[in-house]
Design a protein that fits this description.
6% strand, 794 residues, SH3 type barrels, single chain, alpha+beta
């Protein structure tokens, strides 16, 4: 787990202060003191030699490493070495700039001296040139050292990947084989000697810290560290809870702040306690190399265990169920709470024991046996947890708790954890001990990553809702400052929270998958930059190792696009003033662009180089010419429909004898819903190239309700005209402007034909209106004793 948690440990160290084993630039010889404002001294040759010796020592440690875990400490120290060089280089740059300016003031040297005072100027110029040459040389040497260290980081990463692959595929004794336990029961003489030497180093360090005259301060520091770690954490937790309750507004923001404050108090007090313990042991004499390596790894293990307990306490919140962020039942939370402490304590003891064997250089049999014990114990703890949680969930589901019965996400977590434990147990039985440890560590790593990012996402969402709320002072200030309304603030809050949570989710997935086990913070940043910047597109280099990355990029990208589209359709776009058709068009356009970006990222993960895709473009050109022409034409037409919007979702159109409402505009075709609720699929190119009647374009189209009736020749035309006109005028859907009218259409021996016309607000109600009018006209004609003309007999 030390391997998988390295990235998070670097983040914690940067946030809470550098660890005790880190070497700062101020500790190096030749580091300038800029606090007094004095001129910056140069880096001497002895300083550069010391840096070179330091780098050579790191190379020697790396070359002597014989397993994956022994490369963790040197990798961290190489990164610290690079940071120290950067500080030294940054301290020399102002001096270089100052010397350059001074030489510019003196100007170039003349051809020969013409006066006595020019000899002093020449001497000053020569001195400045000499100083600048030394600074330039020092910067050049520092740049060379930094490049060597950077190359060494890349080499370490390659070695670690190779060792990790070999360890995961290494088949040893099964846990059922006595040969697995024999190195622990009867260790070799060499392993005993190495362990004895490690204990002597610890005793020697303890004797140095407990020597006469120093015992009081050592005991005081140790007691103070214990108090900070125990009582200090509780006091800090209570104080931060009091601050959140009395200073944060009531609601969701207070709840998420309480959870975040609880985790932060646990992490901060642990960091302070570790610093006090380290200072108590090394305030006079530094640790020997063996214990220095062990202290680095022990510090990371402590942070990992503290994160397990801190995040569990913050999210489950069994003491205050109303503060709980996730939707977990009280019975389930009470069941989960003790397992976090058990797991953290177990990992602290067992992993520390394995770190002792690694630091002392004991045999690989001892290390593998320790890994197997860790995997077996963690397997037992997690399996017991899953069984108890499963029983509680069944009881709650039988009692009718719909929240527990319908929680799909909890079911997915339960299934993944169960499958991981089954695989880990199978690996232990078949002898793949390192693989079993890898699975269990990755499960714990996934819990820390997703729990931490879940807490951050909830805090971000609640903060956005509070600061942009028009009910609070911050929202009112934004309204006055920007001159926006409540709806705009709500849109800004939803948009910012949505993008922030999507970015955090993407970062969590990258941290879990792309970073890999043992990846440092710098390597993780490089991997993220490679994916987002497209560095993998420099050459067409598709290898089997890239296929997994491409598959993950494709699946994660599709999930994010669908999640963001649901967020647009359900949260953001309904809060805008746009009509439903425009909202649907924007959602479709976003989806199309998103899928295109996902394809690009997938190709990037495969290592495809665009300059090497000429053969693909040529093949596509031939395909377009023969068979894909219509598809491309419809695709381009769909983009034109979404941008120019001659028709939009919800319009009533008529094309090629088909009349209906546009239901959806897809990439290739448009769906038109007829009056009988059936769907007609029309290619997009027809909507662009053919004559199309858009009845509702602009939203101001009116419908025309026209009836043509034939009466006998002996009727009173004016009476019938007034009857028809009054019927139309009195109907509620007929508009007053334009006014209805009755027209004499035709006179034949069979009768008189009259046409009555009226306008309605929408073409969609023409059919219903005509039906109502016809019923009313026949009723009034019958009451007036007027009959319609009978059709001529054939």
């Amino acid at each position: 787990m030390r391997n998988a948690l390295k990235s998070l440990m670097f983040i914690a160290l940067l946030l809470l202060g550098s660890g005790g084993v880190a070497v700062s630039a101020a500790d190096l010889p030749g580091t300038p003191d800029v606090s007094t404002g004095a001129p910056l001294p140069g880096v001497t040759q002895s300083d550069l030699q010391a840096l070179q010796l330091r780098l050579d020592g790191l190379k020697q440690q790396i070359s002597s490493a014989n397993n994956y875990n022994q490369l963790e400490g040197p990798q961290d120290r190489v990164q610290t070495f690079i940071l120290d060089i950067d500080r030294l280089s940054a301290s020399l740059l102002p001096q270089q700039a100052q010397l350059t300016v001074q030489l510019g003031v003196l100007g170039a040297a003349p051809a020969e001296a013409v006066a006595a005072e020019q000899a002093d100027i020449a001497a000053q110029r020569a001195t400045l040139i000499e100083q600048k040459t030394k600074v330039d040389t020092a910067l050049k040497n520092l740049a060379t050292l930094k490049q060597s260290a950077t190359d060494l980081i890349t080499q370490i990463a390659g070695i670690r990947r190779t060792l990790l692959e070999s360890e995961l595929t290494l088949s040893t004794h099964s846990i059922l084989n006595p040969g697995f336990w024999s190195p622990l029961v009867n260790p070799s003489a060499d392993d005993r000697q190495r362990l004895r030497f490690f204990v002597e180093q610890v005793q020697q360090t303890g004797a140095e810290a407990w020597q006469p005259g120093q015992r009081f301060y050592t005991a005081l520091l140790v007691i103070l560290a214990f108090i900070v770690w125990t009582f200090g954490r509780r006091l800090a937790d209570r104080w931060m809870a009091w601050v959140c309750i009395h200073r944060m507004p009531e609601g969701r923001l207070r709840r998420s702040s309480l959870a975040f404050a609880s985790a932060l108090a646990t992490l901060a007090t642990t960091a302070i306690a570790l610093e006090l313990l380290y200072y108590a042991c090394t305030r006079h004499v530094p640790l020997p190399p063996m214990l220095a390596t062990f202290s680095e790894e022990f510090e990371k293990v402590v942070y990992a265990c503290v994160l397990i307990t801190g995040l569990s306490r913050a999210l489950l919140s069994t003491e205050h169920p109303s503060w709980r962020l996730p939707g977990v039942a009280d019975e389930v939370a009470d069941t989960l709470q003790p397992f976090a402490r058990i797991l953290a304590a177990t990992l602290l003891v067992l992993v520390t024991s394995v770190q002792v064997s690694n630091a002392s250089g004991m045999s690989s049999q001892i290390v593998i046996a320790g890994r197997g014990i860790i995997a077996l114990v963690v397997l037992g703890i997690v399996t017991t947890l899953l069984m108890r949680v499963g029983r509680v969930r069944k009881v709650l589901a039988a009692a009718g708790d719909t929240q527990v019965a319908g929680n799909t996400f909890a079911g997915v977590i339960y299934t993944v954890a169960t499958l991981s434990m089954v695989l880990s147990f199978g690996a232990l039985l078949t002898g793949y001990v390192s693989l079993a440890r890898f699975i269990t560590y990755e499960l714990v790593w996934a819990f820390i990553v997703f729990s931490g990012f879940y807490l951050l996402m909830q805090l971000l969402k609640d903060s956005c809702e509070y600061f942009f709320s028009p009910r609070h002072s911050s929202g009112k200030a934004l309204k006055q400052l920007l001159g926006v309304g409540d709806r705009r603030l709500e849109q800004a809050s939803t948009l910012l929270a949505g993008f922030g949570r999507a970015a955090l989710l993407l970062l969590a997935v990258i941290t879990l998958f792309v970073g890999g086990i043992g990846t440092t913070l710098g390597q993780l940043a490089n991997n993220i930059g490679t994916i987002l910047g497209g560095a993998g597109l420099r050459k067409l280099n598709i290898v089997p190792g890239h296929l997994l990355n491409a598959m993950l990029a494709l699946l994660i990208g599709i999930y994010l696009i669908r999640a963001l589209r649901r967020w647009l359709d359900n949260e953001f776009l309904p809060k805008t003033d746009m009509d439903p058709g425009m909202c649907a068009s924007l959602s479709t356009l976003f989806s199309n662009i998103g899928y295109a970006v996902v394809i690009l990222l997938t190709l990037s993960s495969l290592g495809v180089q665009w300059t090497n895709l000429a053969w693909i473009v040529s093949a596509l050109s031939v395909g377009i010419g023969f068979g894909l022409q219509e598809i491309v034409k419809n695709f381009v037409s769909g983009l034109i429909l979404l941008t120019e919007r001659p028709v939009k979702v919800g319009d009533l159109i008529s094309i090629s004898g088909v009349e209906g409402d546009i239901r959806r505009i897809n990439v290739r075709a448009t769906e038109i819903q007829l009056s009988d609720r059936s769907i007609v699929i029309v290619p997009n190119s027809q909507l662009i190239s053919q004559n199309l009647r858009n009845v509702t374009l602009g939203g101001s189209a009116q419908g025309v309700a026209t009836l043509e009736l034939m009466f006998p020749l002996d009727i009173d035309p004016e009476q019938v005209q007034n009857l028809l006109f009054d019927t139309y005028k009195e109907h509620e859907t007929i508009l007053e402007k334009p006014a209805p009218f009755v027209r004499f259409s035709k006179l034949t021996p069979d009768g008189i034909t009259l046409t009555v016309t009226g306008y309605v607000a929408s073409p969609r109600i023409v059919g219903t209106t005509k039906s109502d009018l016809l019923f009313e006209i026949l009723k009034r004609l019958g009451a007036a004793g007027i009959e319609l003309a009978k059709p001529p007999s054939t």
